[in-house]
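Question (not urgent): is this output format expected?
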Amino acid sequence: MPVVIARHRRARRYVLRMAPDEQLRLTVPRGASISAGLRFAERQRDWILRESARLRDRARAWDGGTVVWHRGERVALARDGRDVRCGTDTVRLSSPDADVRVELEAWWRAAAERELIVRTQELASATGSRVARVSVRNQRSRWGACSARGVITLNWRLIQMPPSVSDYVIFHELMHLRQPNHSRRFWREVASVCAGWRDAERWLRKHGREIL
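Got this back:
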């Protein structure tokens, strides 16, 4: 597979990423060996194959039988004309030839805006956290964010996760209101409000890329 090599003066280690067209990009720290970087890339063979398969799977058109994450479960879509059943929910397509994925993702985002904002307010109240505002966005590389002004931003794709994992992400951002870092003190705050945070982190590491 083609590899684009880019040196970065602030990079501290070799980093390998794959673009949507399956082109590999290898970031090399300043002064580091390119040949060593290519050997590093070769050792990532299993990851490369998994990522390539994931990208090809995402590129396929969605229809009846397509398996997706929905509220924490892997479910197969079932289509009956303009009606697409996803788990216990049914989405009505705008037209018979509508793009199933586009319309299902729009449905998820609308559901996330209704549910995640309310859930964040509930957890903020339960933990005594003061939130200025909550917004739901289409973030491509993070699950949530907390600004210095107390604004919590959440990825709409949390609606596809198990509720316990979605709650963990919200707790995580709420605790940044107390500790705007990832210090030991921050993780102690997280543990004090979310006993299952380690399990949630493991779920995100294992399945997060399948959703993003």
